[in-house]
Structures are given as structure tokens and as C-alpha cells.
Amino acid sequence: MLKVSGISAFYGRIQVLKNIGLEVAEGSIVTILGANGAGKTTTMKTISGLLKPQQGSIEFQGEEVKGLRPDQLLRKGIALVPEGRQILSGMTVLENLEMGAYHRKDNEIDRDIKAIMGRFPILEERQKQLGGTLSGGQQQMLAIARAILSKPKLLLLDEPSMGLAPLVVADIFKIIKEINEAGTTVLLVEQNARQALRISDYGYVLETGKIVAEGSAHELLNDPRIMEAYLGRKSS
Amino acid sequence: MLIEQLINGITLGSIYAIVALGFTLVFGVLGIINMAHGEIFMFGAFIGVVVTATFKGPLWLAFLAAILVTAAMGYMLERFALRPLRSKQGVSHLAPLISTIGVSILLENLSHHLFGPGNHPFRASFAEISFQIGSITVYLVQIVIFIISVLLMYALSFWLGKTKAGKALRATAENLETASLLGVDVKRTITMTVIIASAMGGIAGILVGMAFNSVTPQMGLSIGLKGLAIIILGGMGNVKGAMAGGLILGLAETFVVVYGNSGYKDAIAFVAIIVILLIRPQGLFGQKISA
């Protein structure tokens, strides 16, 4: 579904992505692992159109989409939940959800918003509250719910578990799995490697702007080198 | 006497509010002070003079013409003075401000050239219509100004709060990247914002022309500075703040003239703003920046 090849990107003169190539098959969950500063967020920003890569190509459903703006890519079916969630804090929860469906022109938006509120009761309860007044976990749910309302074919999630309590993290991963089972392809960036790989089909390991390892989630989970470097101590 | 002055103050204040709304919309979305706003406002006033005094046209035509001309100026301001600076890397964050100052000087000189210096009166007959309610004299012009201002503020609030385009504008104002990730064509939203803000400036220009029966090429600067002061007072980028701030400044100026010395009008109004800002540095409706 998504095929990234030979992508290089720079911040000023510093090269942050070196010849990145990755593929996401339709219907799968793919995880990009890596430490801070490895280039994970830059990769996501490049795929979603926030950054323009200097070289390489990005193919989505067989079509070259490199250089398109984020709003154009959203119309093609690529939605990004950015790092730090980026809730519109001065707009209400309901308005945030409505903005999720901003580009849609069908008549089922209200029905879909109701359905999503059924899935996330806390959002229904707080629909008139400003987005900025929600807790971190609630904001993450709002950010994911907002992205779902755009009806993406490919959902990009940049560190959805960042800064959240373990119980909430488990909930977020469960939600991601649900979204995938409902038919949305997911590309996930995570530091929480073990939990991410558990719901994933395939994984890439990013190190200082390069892909240094890749494999099925099962292989990566059982690779001792990767275990040591990115998964930490084996937990029960 | 008191009620008459109150009416004067509210009339003046609602005009200020509309000028300030134009500033605050552009600041909210682009984060820059549009120093050309006052001159666009002045052009709106001149279009009013040309239509009503020179061509003896009706008032509605003056409004229509002023809206069209100032909206077009807004488009050109964005297209030629602001957008080229946004797409380049390494441009100083002061560059757009300087650019709008350049446009303001250009427009002031252009109006000198087109309309000539000195004072241009509006069509006088309209300004003289007044009626008595008890002992109070009310001018028709004041009522018209007040009604137009309230309608405009209401329409803007409704548009920002309830319509899709208005929400897209608020999303863009809050975070450009997030808005574009949600599917908002940010470039178009910015252009639309500058156009709407400029057209509001044009409407305010006609209203001032009607209220004071005086239009000069220099009027843009002083009203521009007042608009700027009002949005600082109300909270940068805040719509309610611009409305409240406009009314406060209008009332303050009017009452200084009545109960004090008209020579100190601007001084006292601005001292009032300084005092309020010392107490609330973020402005009346602004929020403290938090982590």
C-alpha cells in the first residue's frame, strides 16, 4: 500500500534521514522502532507531507505522492496523529472531532461522530469542554478519534503511548489493534517496543537516520541483539 | 448629556472594534501585525467619498465598492507582500512586519496622488439627519454605524463559531501544521483571512467617514495605532478582546473629551491601556502562555 524508497531528508545542513526504504502492506500494522533522535518522527513527517524529502520516492497505492501537501495526502487517505497529539486546545472536543471530518463531503459525519463517542464515552461526556482541558490519555484518544473520522486508508501514529500511564498505554494499543481490524492499515512509531511489536505484523529498526534491521514482529521480538538494544530487559 | 456621550462613545468604540477585528484576525492566523491595515481602512473611507460625494451614488453602493476594493487590496497584500516571505527559508521574523509597513507607505502616497491631500467631506446631507428622544439628540448616522457594527461582529462570531470555514480558520490560527494534517488548505485559509480582515477595514473606513465627515490620506496611521493598541489590550488574536477593547477605547476617549480636555484625548486613552496592561499583561481576554 505504501512504498517508501531511498528517502533522504535534511534539517538545514544536517542529514536526518539516509536512504530510508520501507513498505507497508495493506491491512497490516507496521512498527518503526528506534531511540530518540533516530529519525522516526522525521520519517512520519516526510510520509505525511509536512516535510519534503530531497531524494527518493513515496508511493501510495501505486501512485507517486512525494511533494504533496498534508491536506492533499489526507484526501488520498493518509492521516497522521502527530507526536505530542496536537489537540486544538482552544476548540471544544466536539469541534476537534468535527475538524477530523473536515475534508469529508458525505452525509454520515454526524453518525460517525456519534459512533466514535460511543466507543470513547469520555469524549461524549466532555464534548463541550475545550480540548486543552483533557488529560494526556484523553487527548491521545481524541487525537486518534479525530484521525479515524477522516476515514483514512493508512493511519500514521507517532508515539501514541508517549507520556501516558501504563494502564492507558495498554488501552491505546488495544484501540490501535481494533482500528486495524476494522480495515485501516497502520504505521506506528514507538519507543515502547515490546508492546508495539506484539500488535504488529512487521517492524523496522531505525538508527541515526538509517534502517539497520527489519523483520516480522515475531523475528524482531526473538532477536537477541534487538532485544538488548531496543526492548530492554525481558519482562514476564 | 450623559446618555448622548454614551451613544457617542459606543459609536466610536464599535468602529474601533471593527478595525481591531481586522488586526486580530490576521495576527491570529499569521502571527504578524499588519501595519497596512490602517491604510486599507483609509482606502475604504476614500472609496466611500468617491462614490457618495463625487459620483453622488447611494450609500449601499459605497459600501459594496469599498468592500470589493479593500478585499482586492487584501488579496494583493497577501499575494505579493506576505506569501513570498513565507515560502523562503532564513527570512527574519520581522520581515513581514517591515513588508506591511512598506505597503502602508505605498498606499498612503497612492491616496495622496489619487485623491489629493487635505480633508475630503462625505456627503453632508446624510450626516445632518437627527432626531430628538426627550432631551437627547441622536444622529441617524450613529444608529446606522452601531447597527452595522453589531451585525458585523455578530456575523463574524457566528462564522468563526459555527461554520466549517470559520472553524478551519480557528484551527489554522491555533496550529498551522495540525490544521493542514486535518485537511485544511492552509494557504487558502490564510488568503481568505487577509481578504476578510481587509474588507472589514474597508467597512470601518466608510463608517468613520460617515461619523466624522472627514477623510484624509493620513487617517490610516492613527487609526492603525489605535487598532494595534486595542488588540494588545484585548489579548492578541482574541476576537472578543478586540470587541471589548474597541468599546473601552471609544468610551474612554469620548468621556475624556466631555469631562476633561480634548487635547489629552489620546494620551488619557492610551494611559488607561497601559494601566490595564500593567495589571493584566496578557490583555483582557488573552491567556497566559503555559507550558
Helix share, percent of chain B: over 70%
CATH fold topology of chain B: ABC transporter involved in vitamin B12 uptake, BtuC
Q: What is the H/E string of chain B?
A: HHHHHEEHHHHHHH
Question: If you consult CATH, what is the topology of one domain in chain A?
Answer: Rossmann fold
Largest sheet of chain B: 2 strands, antiparallel
Can you describe this structure?
The complex is a heterodimer of chains A (236) and B (291). Chain A is α/β, with parallel strands linked by helices. Chain A has ten helices and ten strands. In chain A, the strands form two sheets. A six-stranded mixed β-sheet of chain A has the order 6-7-8-3-9-10, sandwiched between helices. In chain A, strands 2-1-4-5 form a four-stranded antiparallel β-sheet, with helices on one face. In chain A, helix 3 (93-100) runs parallel beside helix 6 (136-149) and helix 6 (136-149) packs parallel to helix 7 (166-181). Chain A is globular. The model of chain A has no long low-confidence stretch (mean pLDDT 91). A two-stranded antiparallel ribbon of chain B has the order 1-2. Chain B has a single domain, classed as ABC transporter involved in vitamin B12 uptake, BtuC (Orthogonal Bundle). Classes of the chains: A alpha/beta (236), B mainly alpha (291). Chains A and B meet through helix 2 and helix 3 of A and helix 7 and helix 8 of B.
What's the gist of this structure?
The complex is a heterodimer of chains A (236) and B (291). Helices cover 38% and strands 27% of the residues of chain A. Chain A has 236 residues and is of the alpha/beta class.
List keywords for this structure.
heterodimer, A: 236 residues, alpha/beta, Rossmann fold, six-stranded mixed beta sheet, four-stranded antiparallel beta sheet, 10 helices, 38% helix, B: 291 residues, mainly alpha, ABC transporter involved in vitamin B12 uptake, BtuC, two-stranded antiparallel ribbon, 12 helices
